[in-house]
Specification:
Length: 247
């Protein structure tokens, strides 16, 4: 059904959505982005899915936008790909069904931006999170191996910043000063610091991660879905009451 995703909706109401391109650390290419658009709409329309748990297969959650995809794009298509990511992640944020991102290993660039579009993030203690876009065109030693021959996204003039909503959602989550520090340095934060700055809600030992995430998902799935939707709507729109109680 999907080339880059694995979806499993359990009778308990937990829908696990796995990014499934482990060889490239689940880097997001056009196929995965289009599939994410489709699957989140389908899950939001599925009454059996009470909560979506977003995960990555293999040793990382997601290493960001697929740099090989970026390399193949014209300047115009690159702008369009940014718009596509922005629209897709905004839709995830606006879903009625709760979404939890469960992050292990790397959650970088577009991968962290995807996690930030979820309602909240939990992490394994081996997680490393960051928006390293600025390092892709940095001077040594800060430029990563993957762009040592040149960054496809960085024109000599003009610029590039986290393109899929991170510049908005990271400051909302951790405050402007810390968000600016992370984006200006491109530094990766470990799980302990991520917890301290409020980027993740909880950290679990890596060897208990599957179990703890399953327990969290099962708990939310056991709640009345009318009420989980109601709470999301009240919080997302800053209302104190949407409608009177039906009873
Ligand atoms: N795109 C495409 N492929 C990627 C990738 C990416 N973002 N990140 C990793 N990979 C691939 C590597 O090319 C490698 O493939 P091969 O085995 O075929 O060579 C494989 O995944 C494993 O990667 P490494 O060998 O580099 O593994 P590592 O453990 O030494 O390093 C890493 C892991 C630190 C994540 C490193 O791969 C890295 O720095 N990746 C780039 C991360 C990044 O900068 N992401 C931001 C992308 S830009 C973005 O997301 C823009 C936006 O706002 C939308």
């Amino acid at each position: 059904m999907y080339e880059t995703l694995e979806v499993n909706v359990e009778s308990s109401g937990v829908a696990t959505l796995m990014l499934n391109k482990p060889k490239s650390l689940n880097a997001i290419d056009l196929t995965m982005m289009m599939e994410l658009r489709r699957v989140f709409q389908e899950l939001d329309d599925d009454p059996q899915a009470h909560v979506v748990v977003l995960r990555g297969a293999g040793r990382a959650f997601c290493a960001g936008a697929d740099i090989k995809w970026s390399e193949s794009l014209t300047k115009k298509d690159r702008l369009e790909s940014n718009r596509l990511g922005q629209k897709t992640f905004a839709r995830i944020e606006q879903m009625e069904t709760p979404v939890v991102a469960a992050v292990h290993g790397y959650a970088l660039g577009g991968g962290l931006e995807l996690a930030l579009a979820a309602d909240f993030i939990v992490a394994a203690d081996d997680a490393q999170l960051g928006l390293p876009e600025i390092t892709l065109s940095a001077e040594p030693p800060y430029r990563p191996k993957i762009t040592e021959d040149g960054d496809p996204d960085q024109p000599e003039f003009g610029g590039q910043a986290p393109g899929w909503g991170g510049t908005k959602r990271l400051p909302e989550r951790v405050g402007r000063a810390i968000a600016k520090e992370l984006m200006l340095t491109g530094v990766r934060v470990d799980a302990e610091r991520a917890l301290r700055i409020g980027l993740v809600n909880e950290v679990y030992p890596a060897d208990q991660f599957d179990e703890q995430v399953a327990e969290l998902g099962a708990r939310i799935a056991a709640m009345n879905p009318y009420n989980t939707r109601l709470i999301k709507e009240l919080v997302n729109h800053g209302y104190d009451m949407l409608e009177s109680h039906p009873s």
